[in-house]
Amino acid sequence: MRPTVLNVAFALFMANVPWVDGLADDDIHIVFSTDCSGYQNWQAEALAYSALMVGQQGHITRIVSNCPDDADFAMMRRSSYPNYHVHITPKFSLDEGREYFPYYNKPLGVDHWIKNAVPAVSQSVVVLLDPDMVFVQPIRPDGVKNKDYILYTGHRKKSEVSDAVREGHPVGQQYLIGSGWVNFKRDLICGPGSPCTTVSHDTANEHYALGPPYLLHREDAKKVFDAWAKFVIKVREVQGRSVADMLSEMFAYCLGAAHHELPHDRLDHFMVSNHRADGEAWEFIDKLEEYSNFNPCMGPQVPPPDAALPLLVHYPGEVIPYIDPGMGGWKFHKKHMPQNIYDCKAKIPGWTSDDGRGPVTVTPEQIWTQATSPSSKCSNKHQETDCKRQAWVACYVQKTIQQSILAYKAKFCKPGYSVELDGSLLHPAVMHVKVDPYGAPLSGTKQTREGLKDKYAGEDGSKEYHKKLQRERAFAVASGGVSASSSSDNSPVAAAAASSSSSSS
Fold first, then answer.
1. pTM for the structure as a whole
2. Are 391 and 321 in contact (CB under 8 A)?
3. Burial profile 273-310: b = 16 or more Cβ within 10 angstroms, e = fewer
4. How many angstroms separate the first and last alpha carbons of the chain?
5. pLDDT digit string (tens) for 375-422?
6. What are the tens digits of pLDDT across the range 49-90?
7. Backbone φ and ψ of 55, nearest 5°
8. Three-state SS for 345?
9. How many helices (H) and strands (E) does the chain have?
10. Which of 98, 241, 287, 418 is most buried per CB count within 10 Å?
11. Phi first, then psi: what are they for 331, rounded to 5°?
């Protein structure tokens, strides 16, 4: 790699500032929050597999909240990713007589996790994702290897920002959420005299207009998560319904970070999501041929290492890269994914979708050709980059999900599991299932244990057994029987320890 001004500047920055000694690539803990629904079960495993696929190091924890009494935690533990954990929280959304509000889960969940994780969080860097994300490149504590791949559209010089995470220097992805929280009654939320009350609109936009991935040093995460959990409730109490549901949670994070005087370097290169949004890593897709030339529609699924690509895809609700004059188009929609896709006997979702107007079947190559052809209906209806962006995201996400299912089945299912690539993406109305107020399916064909290898088919899925596994794993780590860097909720060490404990008790 030829040295450039930015790479040289970063090397000097690392050499001359005492607190930026290099951190190991595995000195990192990825965490994301979900409920226990089938809708988020499949998202969790797709995320975990994608991390494995791109060579992500460190640990991954799925936080689960509001689980029913009969939730199958054995199923949640099963993952292709080796250092994978499941952390169970109380039912926050229903505590203390409050109305159901799903956006309490994330801030209260991560706060509960960092205070109560078993074993305790020991990695230097904590990265908070959303479950509907898949990795394209690994996230490292020291940031991307080629600093020319940092994208930044703020008001400072690019050489003045860094994607290396250290104590006192958190980093995040730009989101176009604005600075509306500056107009809140901040003294009633953060407390009189809090530093959050003095943040200006300019500072809010430069340092706090962000969202997942949030990347913080562990000690900073403890502070911010604690304040975030408190402030998200106060935002609802003080500002009421004048704030949109999701924004109340995101603004509470801003308030928590500002309260502890932890301005973030707000960067653009971590993620792509909304194909019409600024401040995301779309430059790498728009100029694909000049950068990585990685095209998941036309070739292999695994991206090249350390390439000029976004680190994550945060898949939006709906992607329609292929416009068919008769049917309206092939469509990827996360809420149209069947909930049992990791069932050993289930068909793998292929390239057919049905949004209620009849099935449309395509190939990945057709998606790209139609989306990028100057004569295509997509290009005529939208800007050319819109179509190209949607096609790239649709192919990458769908192929990643397909590969994750094959990897899961190879690891956990008996021989003879289904490898048919002819399942369909179906609108909830087509599946005849109810949806929640946010459009997510509330029911559907559930994942079963049929076809699992014997040691998984009979595994105890209770909450009590899961917590016992965690205690045994923590003891093994503390006693030196297994290293914290190699332990996991689904590891043989944890299972064997728990089994031994069960037989002796």
1. 0.90
2. yes
3. bbbeeebbbbbbbeebeeebebbbbeeeeebeebbbbb
4. 58
5. 766 655 667 788 889 899 999 999 999 999 999 999 999 999 999 888
6. 999 999 999 999 999 998 888 899 999 999 999 999 999 998
7. 85, 25
8. coil
9. 16, 15
10. 418
11. -140, 130
